[in-house]
Structures are given as C-alpha cells and as structure tokens.
Model the fold of this input.
Amino acid sequence: MFDIDKFFADSFPVVLSADAELDEGDNKQLDVQSLSNFFDTPMVIDEIRTQIVTPNVEIELGNFGGSVRFKLSLDRYALSSVYIPVGCLGPTFDGATIDSTTYQATSNSPESLNGAFADAYFMGFFRWKLPRPLVVPAGMALEAKISREIDGLTVAYPSAGPLSVNVAYAGRVARRQMPSGVTIPIPWVGLFENQFTTPSVAISDQLDLYNPFQQPLTVQRLIGRWWNAYLATGLPDATRIALDTTGTLGRDSIDFPPTQVKLFNGFYVTNGFIPGCSVFESNTRSLGVNVDLDRGEGFEISIDATSGLPSTGPDNPPLGYNRSLVTMIGWRNQTL
Amino acid sequence: MNDLDSVGWPLVLSAEVTVPSQTTQRPPQLALMNPTGEAFRIHEIRFTVNAGTARTTGAVVGCKLDLGSVALTRGFIPVWNFGRVISYDQDLNLQFSWRLQHPIHIPANGVLQPSFQHFGLISDSVIVRVSYFCSTLPPHSPKPRKVRLPWVTAYIGKSFSYTAADTDQSRETDLLNSFDTDLQISRLVGRVNVFSAAGGNNFSLVGSQLLLTRITLSNGDPLVRTLTPFQQIFGEDGRAWEQRNTILKPQQFFQVFVEKQLTTDVAPQALIQPYVSMVGYRELEVE
Done:
C-alpha cells in the first residue's frame, strides 16, 4: 500500500478551483483544465470546498446543499455512481445572510453565520474532508460534473438568476515522481434519497448504500440530512428551501424522523427506530461507522415519517417537498 | 509526589489593558508571569477585544509578542490573524484563540510580553485582554537545549473601494522567512475587513464574490494558480488554510495577489481590506 503521508512529507500546498452558474435543472462539467494537476509530480486532494451564492433575491431561508450536486471521477475511477448533494459530504457551515442596505452581516460569528431575515444575499459553504487524501497523478484531473435539481426557487421568484457555484480542491503537491503501479485509496459515496409525499416509512434499496466493488469498501460514516422546501407561487416572503430545518420559519428546530440502520447481514446498528438527530449527530449530521464491507454488503436505512411531515406550502397540492438524504462515505483501494 | 508534579499543573495567566485609538499600550507584565517563578509552557493564547458600543473587528488592534530579546511576530499583527474566532458578538466581546502547534517554553522568571497597537480604524478605545493557557513544569526542570518558537508575519492589503475594480499584491517582506533556518508553516490565515460608517465587519459576501486571490511561492510554484474566491482559500470554518508539511527555506516567501471585482451594488462608502498572515515556527538553540 502506497504510504501517502511519507511520500508527501515535504509537499507544498495548492488550491485548484473552477466556477459554474447553475439554473434549475442544469447539468455542467466544471473546467477540467482549472482542476487538473498541472505540476509534473503527483498531488493529493485533502478536501473539496463548495461555495454557493444565490442571486440577489428576497429569500427568507435558503440552503442549496441538497440541490447542487456533483459527480466526481479520477480517470476511469468514479467516486460515486450518482450525483451527490454537496451538503451531504461534510458539515454545513451555516450560510451568511447579509443586509443589502447596510452590507452588515445580520448575525455574528464569521465562522458560522446564522441567517436572518431581510433583503439579502445568501451564501452556503460546504466542505468535504476526504476520508483518505486522493492521489492525483501528474497531468490528471479529478473531473467534476455539477448539477442543480429543480429546487423550486423560481416558483417564488420567477426571475431568479442562476446560483454561482465555486468548487475548490485544497491539497498538496509532492516534490518527486511517484512509482508506477501504486495502490491508493479512492473515496466512494453512495446515496439513498426519498421524497415523502405522505407520512410513510421509506426503506433504502439494496443498490443505494452498498459495496459495488470486488475489493472491500471501508465505510467511514453515514450522513443524514432532511431537505424541506416550503414554496408558494408569488409569495416570496414565505419561501423556504432548507436543510435540517423544518417547521416554522426561524430555524427553530432541526428535525429528522426516527431512523433504523442495519447491515445486510442482519446486524442492527441501531436498536430499533431512534430519533434521527440521535443517529445523525446534530452538528456534523454524521454517524461514524468504521466498518469494512465485502462485495455486495451494505447498509439498509429505514426512515419512519408516519407521525407527520413538515409543511411544504399553502397551495393544494403543496408545491414544496420533503426529502431525506442519506449518504455513505468510504474508500476502496485501487491499483493505478 | 503528586502525579501532576511530573506532568505540570494547569495555569491561566491573564491581563487587560485599555488602548486608546492610535496608541500602543502594554498590559501589566507581572500578571503574565508564573507566580512561583518556575519555568512553564504556553499552549494557547487568547485575545478578547471589546470596543464598548462601537462595532469592531479583530483588525482594529494588533499584537506584538516578545520573549526577552526574541521577537515572535514581525511587528504588530492584527489579533484576528493568529488563529480562529471563539466568539464574535459585535456588541460584546470578540474572542480569538491561537492554539500553538508547539508549546512555548518560558524560562524561570521569564515572561512572554505582549504589546498592543490600536490601528485607528475606529476612534473608540479598545479594551484588550490577553490570556495564556499554560502548564507548569516540574520544579528544577533542566533548561532545554533547543526550543521551537512561533513566528507570525502578515500582509495587510490596501483598502479597496467597495464598488470599483482594483488590484493589490503583498510585498516580498510581508510573508517572508527572514531567518537563516527553515520555517515550518502551520497555517495561513485570511480575513477580510469591511468598514463603513456603521462600523467594521468581516463577512462572507466580499470574500466569496468580490475578492479573488492568487498565491505563489517565491520560487514560482503556484499555490493558487487561478484567481479563486478569497473565501475558498481560507476556509469558512476557521478562516485558515492549514499547512501540513510546508517548509519555507531561508529568504523564501509567499506572494499574495488580490483582485477586487467591480460591482454595481450600492454600499454606504464601505472600504474592503484583506489580511493574510503566515503562522509558523522555527527551532532555536538556547544559549
């Protein structure tokens, strides 16, 4: 196994970044040249940072971490089989809301600004610290396809412009050549997503959160987020597109229905259905698991929303939606 | 012998000083010395800044640290450029924490002396409290032959008008290893100060959209090759770009290029100023 820490012991840091503007339903490829390792030695990517800035619209609360998604691949090695929401890879840092009259942040800490309600810009910052640094050989790129769901922003704001998204890879560059035929860890992310139209129980499919490889998959953690959108035509003040926030406007609650987690082999990770915030810890929204899955093994997630769902809008039928998002983050070893 | 005698007792030393605008003040030295006179180690340094009812930021006051005749900073470094924010309520106290990668060894009867300079960005006086979170050393501990001392230096960019396009870059001496030994870099801290008549603020709109940055090493290695939002380089969580294995050789330096974008947004005569600091450490032989 290639010793990444030793090989990169005297590296120097680097940040690569690329931009995209995304309308609802868009699907684009980020500029490969901007994201490629243009050095003549290999580099590692330690973390991937995503920044989302909304157009200047009045929006009470907006978190597009469920809507903006990417699908990454290093040459022929994919990091996921589907598009993964950027908010489901690591902790969310609460987006900032800025008063557009005084240009003052309407809240305090610059590290974590809570949104407040005024004419505002909205920014979201998301970070994925990779479970293992990803080696990118000289001249190659971690290619990123980026998309945006039909999240409903234009229901309330028909003339809303696109989201401005910047994706940055923070990493390190080695000072020497890498030997050929090395075995490196490559991250893998699975996604279980369910839209709840009525109070019900949702169970993940066998192909959602499992190991599709011949070699073992080491799973670092599961992340669970609840995506709630409250939409109303022509009522921009009522709009809410939020992760982990439900109920009335004001971020007064974080909610995820009772959840059961078990492995395919029948081992129960949770002893029955447990409130979601106890399974997916409230700050990081993650459940650390540290388990090796053989080929075909995986997790089954059951989410019990039978006791009710947060409101999604005043229309009949409502225009918004409730979706659960659960990701499985790990890595497998691959010989280059 | 108590077990703690072998590993050290926790010790917190703290002192406060009021710094009027555009002056330099020192807090009382005695309050920052080990009362027993024995040697001790500092693990973390915290700054608390309070400007009364005036809105302020960590850019308003700078700190210079001296350990005897050895300087640990290149002049006065804004107190928000050492590490992360702990609390940031503009109406009360701003608190910043600098967790040292290696504890600073303070010899018997020694003191790490801070001085604070009010840069005059606001006219109100600022009350600054500095606190050292330490551990004592066992009595009669031998003097170390080598110590690791931090070194902090900063690039304070020019004040950009909020709306106009403009550029700036750091000088070679701003983020330089001026020593004749290697400097191990712990982190680069990047913050943006936005000042208007309503007071100061550090917020994300400017860093995410209006300020783009490129960074290179003096040998030409591009650390950030394309113009990238300031916020994406200095992460949202701690405004720091943590460095794992970066070594600056003697006379090597980082160079920061900043490009301020044109905007048609109306802003109440706000000014924007970037701050980038380099926090690292070097090894010294003790005489």
